[in-house]
Design brief:
By secondary structure, the protein is of the alpha/beta class. It has twelve helices and 16 strands.
Amino acid sequence: MTAADNPQEYIDWSNEGQPATAPWRSANGAPAPKRVVPVDDTITADAAYRLASQGIAMLWHGDFQNARQILTALEHRTRPKPDRTERTTAELFYRYRQNRSHRARILGHLLIPLEGGNIIGLRRAPDVVSATVDAYGSITEASVVSLHEVLGTIGAHQWRTKGIPVAALNASVYPHYGTFFPVRSEYVGLVASAPLAAPKVAFDIGTGTGVLAAVLATRGVPRVVATDIEPRAVASARETVSRLKLTERVEVHLTSLFPDGRADLIVCNPPWIPATAHSLLDAAVYDPGSRMLKGFLAGVLGHLEPRGEVWLVLSDFAELVGLRSRDDLLKEIDAAGLRVIGALEAPAVHARATDTSDPLHAIRRNEVTSLWRLTAREPTT
């Protein structure tokens, strides 16, 4: 379900003794806060943290830059304290996720008004029209949004404006808000270098920005069908295909998993961590119970041409933190009627693998992304 599928929510508060209400907007699918109080420049960071910790959201009526200072102070208060206790990788991951959830909850409780025309109705507010249109669409009535989320839309818009270079394409992609940014080059490089047996049709399942579909097309696949369940991803992928002048080879469909028909090659880079996503943006990484992975494996043979090949691109991060074993993955592949005919591996080269300040640095530096080459298991006699 996308943010647009949710019914409109409203928040209510009291303004100088008079009831007030406004539509709630969240591009990340965050629910509307139940309790809201108006605050201004006189509130202290400690008082703001106490309110947020009690689940009380604060609707800012003061200066925008002062609101940013309060948000920064809240962020400092949510940073994990140094922990010298010896812990297992599973415990480290659990503490990391717990802190991230707490941080998102606290920071999401500082709210600002977003007026018609996508203008922030506060003193000294920046121009966020382009960034917020990307995330929310055009705002026609005064609404309330999370300041933390709005700042995220600004960062995302900067990425979209600048573009993200993709070496395998010798070009940049310009991701829409809410799609997975292809800043992890490992999975793209694997698809760009894996042995390709001249398929006539390829499917790219869960295409995101369309980068893998574009790689397949530039490698000579005459027809690529890319799918995604998220409308923003479909729009982003179509733009990528258009910018790269690949529209004659690549088509993009809004659908869950597979398009109609069969393909000689089916590629999927599913979310790789079987844990709960805390936002729509998390859904490209976190997949509770490995639902997409299992759904893909269970259905792929029904869309694979005889002697066709499946490329499953997956990080082993879940294995490193004890959420899934290698044996579990191989059993899922076998249960789907598939067998492994080869695998390519790429060590982690993304920025977080070298960030020693990351609580999970010791795990991330050992992460390996694999491209599993699969085909239909031969029937036993």
